[in-house]
Design a protein that fits this description.
With about 425 residues, the protein is mostly helical. It has 15 helices and no strands. It folds into two domains: about 230 residues, no CATH class; about 180 residues, no CATH class.
Length: about 425
């Protein structure tokens, strides 16, 4: 894969080196929690993983709009002080939303428990505002570092996130599901602290140039992001979390835990590598859009083919050896999860191939097209999973997988269409 990227940018291309830097960091980052999973599955019950899955789903849905999507605009201004103004704006919005969320949780904790159908989540809902704010902080600083091509810093942040989360979860196992949740928050916090410490030491002079007038100016200039991207991003993330939310509502925490750990075991390494590629690809795609837009279509198509081919060996291994792998790695109690994984791996594969390229639809001129797909996905995933809400878990997973293959292929078609749009405004 790196040889392909090098050909795109040149044998000594910075692009390939950026990919290597982030992929090294993300490989280490995903290796830490993956290595700990066989221990965690023996320290925690499936019900505990179910509580964690529900907490993470709710936190993720709110976090995705906590910054009003202004962090996506950080890459676009020519001047660093304008980009820094957007960072401050995004973090400020996240702080306000987190405070409002805290008030709501205080007032409506019990009704929220009842709505989600998992009473054990109740005490941990009070930590949601912390998760949301830290996520908004990390997202904003993440794009700032991407803009500055600080890929080593990005890689370090991911590594300490994985290490901090895993260490805390191992050390807090006596707290059952709460230990998993607290570990998740610790991972978020240490990752954000890496960015904060580096920015305070190295980028402080740029932040001093931020003024209220500049924040207002950039808020207006990039108003398309909250105006058009927030609703779509919320729908998109809600759709992603829908399997856990529906399983929580209509099944036990045990079933949710089995599904979530199986999906995490398959998706965690793929999603981390995909996220790293997205960071580098976004910079590359913006550059191509400005300098050689006619090359976008071919570049996107080649990357898709390379990523899809990379998944073939993993698909074959999980398809033929899923139950044996899961029972060996996680314990005999998880053998059935391996059988379900043999179906779900196809959904993971198509997501891995398409998701890094979705940054094409994050460009300002394609935001509406991205929102359209998100709306289609939202309606179809809810419809599909609701129809199969009472089905046996294997049937539920099969329906989910078929839906993913069809909808992500449609997503890729939208992305290819987006490469043909050549104006930012």
């Amino acid at each position: 894969m790196l040889r392909f990227f090098a050909r795109v940018k040149g044998k000594q291309g910075q692009f390939a080196r950026n990919v290597l830097t982030l992929m090294t960091g993300t490989t280490i980052a995903q290796a830490i929690p993956l290595a700990a999973m066989p221990i965690l599955t023996r320290l925690y019950e499936p019900e505990d993983f179910g509580v964690l899955a529900l907490y993470m789903s709710v936190a993720a849905m709110i976090s995705v709009v906590a910054t009003a999507r202004y962090e996506l605009a950080v890459m676009l201004p020519e001047k660093n002080d304008d980009a820094a103004s957007l960072v401050v704006l995004a973090i400020s919005i996240a702080a306000v939303i987190s405070f409002v969320l805290f008030i709501l949780v205080l007032a409506f904790n019990e009704p929220i428990q009842g709505f989600f159908g998992v009473p054990a989540i109740g005490p941990w809902l009070y930590l949601l505002p912390v998760s949301v704010f830290v996520a908004g902080l990390w997202q904003s600083l993440n794009y700032w570092n991407n803009r500055a091509a600080n890929f080593r810093r990005l890689a370090v942040s991911r590594m300490v996130q994985g290490g901090g989360m895993t260490s805390a979860q191992l050390g807090l196992s006596s707290m059952a599901g709460g230990g998993l949740i607290l570990g998740y928050i610790v991972g978020q916090a240490v990752a954000a602290s890496v960015f904060l410490s580096k920015i305070w030491r190295e980028d402080r002079s740029i932040l001093h140039a931020v003024t209220l007038d500049k924040i207002r100016k950039n808020a207006k200039e990039y108003i398309k992001f909250p105006k058009y991207s927030c609703a779509g991003a919320l729908l998109d993330n809600a759709a992603i979390q829908m399997p856990v939310l529906i399983l929580s509502k209509f099944n036990t925490a045990h079933v949710v835990g089995v599904f979530s750990l199986m999906f995490r075991a398959l998706n965690l390494p793929m999603s981390l590598i995909s996220a790293a590629l997205s960071q580098v690809l976004f910079q590359k795609l913006v550059g191509l859009h400005r300098e050689a837009p006619e090359r976008l279509f071919g570049f996107v198509l080649k990357v898709f083919i390379v990523l899809l081919m990379l998944m073939v060996p993993l698909v074959l291994v999980v398809w033929f050896l899923g139950p044996e792998l899961f029972s060996f790695v996680f314990g005999e109690a998880w053998r059935d999860a391996g059988g379900y994984a043999a179906i779900l791996i196809f959904a993971v594969a198509i997501r891995f191939a398409v998701s890094p390229l979705s940054m094409v639809l994050a460009m300002e001129h394609n935001v509406r097209m991205g929102t359209l797909w998100q709306c289609i996905y939202f309606v179809t995933i809810i419809s599909t999973l609701y129809i199969f809400k009472g089905a046996e878990l294997g049937t539920f997973i099969l329906a989910f997988t078929v839906h993913e293959i069809i909808l992500y292929f449609l997503y890729f078609c939208f992305i290819l269409l987006g490469t043909k749009q050549h104006s930012f405004r």
